[in-house]
Structures are given as structure tokens and as C-alpha cells.
UniProtKB/TrEMBL annotation:
Keyword tags: Metal-binding, Oxidoreductase, Zinc
Record InterPro entries: Extradiol_dOase_DODA, Xdiol_dOase_suB
Presence of keyword Oxidoreductase: yes
UniProt xrefs under Gene3D superfamilies: LigB-like
Name used for this protein in its record: Extradiol ring-cleavage dioxygenase class III enzyme subunit B domain-containing protein
Reported cofactor(s): Zn(2+)
Molecular function terms from GO: ferrous iron binding; oxidoreductase activity, acting on single donors with incorporation of molecular oxygen, incorporation of two atoms of oxygen; zinc ion binding
């Protein structure tokens, strides 16, 4: 299928059955080139998801003033990290973009002004995961930025407004980590992905899962009141916010499946979920 064919397909956002929603704990960028239990689960996920017409990804690694969507036809692969092996910097994920999806989002969102962006591309929060879920890179991908200056309720409410995409064949993916404190990361041996965590990290991971499975999203929006260690688990919110976007898209009584449910490196949760 040519790039032209992919763009033509991206214009056809006809009505579809309700698409699932995914939140992925993406962890270290090295997951892009490693073969481990987490990326294997991402591969199985791709085999079991319905084929989307396009993907909208909210990544922890694109923070802006205001909210934007990528609108270029050929988003670049961004290597937004340093100190990693050359092999990682050589990775490319040449998925097409979708100006049509960007326009659809901008037209349908009424309460927030959504801007178009032609500079960003796909950061590692998106491509390091997508290369395992959809290795052919043949599905158009649009990223939506996180407004760094807005609170948790804003992001949840904006997520609710994206619900129409689920019936237009669009797979919405949030990519971050529920627990993400790099200042307290502790690696035992050479494997960053070894299961290990501080007591408070395990406690909060279990608490977050309980709130998710019971639909108590209000408590998750106001997460700083949930546990004394909430600010240790989430010293800055950018990796947590993609979770709120995905939870906002859940319809009443929809099933939630948890996967990759581990705390690693002391203070990082790989816990992920599929809604629908």
C-alpha cells in the first residue's frame, strides 16, 4: 500500500463499531529495541485489536502551552532522549500522518481551541510502543499534545470530548506511566525492567488499579489526595495525564483489562490497560 493510498484511507472516517481504548506504560526507550515481556505483550495486543482507520496518541513527551494535533502528512520520528546506544537513534517509524484526522478533531471539539502543528512528529512515547503494536507502520498516526498549564480536570474533560472518535474507527492510545519518578529509580543489576519497587510504589499501583476497575475516576483526577506518597509517585504529572484521557473514554460498564502489571526500577509502573 502506497503512502497516497494510506492518506486516502485516512479520509474515510465512516461509522464503525466502538473501538477499544488503550493506555500503555511505555517505560524506558530501550523497549523499542529489546525483546522482553512488556514488548511481547504489546505485540500480542496488536494482533488482537480491531484494525483502526487511524490512531490518535497522547504521549507524555509532548507538552505545550495550549493543545495541538500534528497535521503533517509524514511525521518525523523524534529521538527525544540521550545517552542511549546508537541502535536506538537509528530507529525509524515511518507511519503516515493524517491531516484529515487532525481536522476532524479540531472541528468536533467545541470547548477547547485545538491548534495544528507541523513541526513535532512522533516522539518515543508513541513510536517505541507503536513499532511493536503495529510493526508495519501502515496506519496513519496523529499525536495530540498535553497542555502543561492545565489541571487534571481539563484533561479528563477533553478526553470525554474525544469519545466520538471511537465510533469513527480511531484507536486512541495514551502513553505514559501511572507511577513515574526518575529521580528515585533504582536499577538492580543490568536490567532496567527487573520487577522491583518501593513499598509505596506497590501500594499506589494497587490503589490506582482498584480505582480504575471500580470506575472511581473522580479520585484518580484528584490523585494527590489518594495517598501520602502520591507526590513521590507523580512528582510531575505528564506521564500520568495520558491515563486520564483514556479513562475519560470509557463507556458505562465497559470491561477493563489490565496487562503488563509490574512496578520496575523502584519507582516506575508499567501497568497498562485496554478498555472495551
Amino acid at each position: 500500500m502506497t503512502l497516497k493510498d494510506l492518506h486516502k484511507r485516512a479520509m474515510q472516517f465512516h461509522d464503525t463499531p466502538l473501538m477499544p481504548v488503550v493506555f500503555v506504560g511505555h517505560g524506558t526507550p530501550m523497549n523499542a529495541v529489546e525483546d522482553n515481556e512488556f514488548v511481547q505483550a504489546w505485540g500480542r495486543l496488536g494482533q488482537n485489536l480491531p484494525q483502526p482507520q487511524a490512531i490518535l496518541c497522547i504521549s507524555a513527551h509532548w507538552e505545550t502551552r495550549g493543545t495541538f494535533v500534528t497535521a503533517m502528512n509524514e511525521p518525523k520520528t523524534i529521538h527525544d532522549f540521550y545517552g542511549f546506544p546508537r541502535e536506538l537513534f537509528a530507529q525509524q517509524y515511518p507511519a503516515p500522518g493524517s491531516k484529515e484526522l487532525a481536522q476532524l478533531v479540531r472541528e468536533q471539539i467545541n470547548d477547547v481551541a485545538i491548534g495544528e502543528d507541523y513541526e513535532w512528529g512522533l516522539d518515543h512515547g508513541s513510536w517505541s510502543v507503536l513499532k511493536h503494536i503495529y510493526p508495519l507502520a501502515d496506519i496513519p498516526v496523529v499525536q495530540m499534545s498535553i497542555d502543561h498549564f492545565k489541571g487534571m480536570q481539563y484533561h479528563y474533560d477533553l478526553g470525554r470530548e474525544l469519545a466520538f472518535l471511537r465510533r469513527k474507527g480511531v484507536l486512541v492510545i495514551g502513553s505514559g506511566n501511572m507511577i513515574h519518578n526518575l529521580r528515585m529509580v533504582r536499577v538492580e543489576g543490568d536490567d532496567f525492567n527487573t520487577e522491583y519497587g518501593y513499598d509505596w510504589a506497590f501500594e499506589l499501583n494497587d490503589l490506582f488499579k482498584d480505582k480504575i476497575l471500580n470506575g472511581d475516576f473522580h479520585s484518580l483526577i484528584d490523585y494527590t489526595r489518594l495517598h501520602d506518597a502520591s507526590r513521590l509517585a507523580i512528582p510531575t504529572p505528564e506521564h500520568y495525564i495520558p491515563l486520564l484521557y483514556t479513562l475519560a473514554l470509557r463507556e458505562r460498564d465497559e470491561p477493563v483489562r489490565i496487562f503488563n502489571d509490574k512496578v520496575i526500577a523502584g519507582s516506575l509502573s508499567m501497568t497498562s490497560l485496554v478498555i472495551g
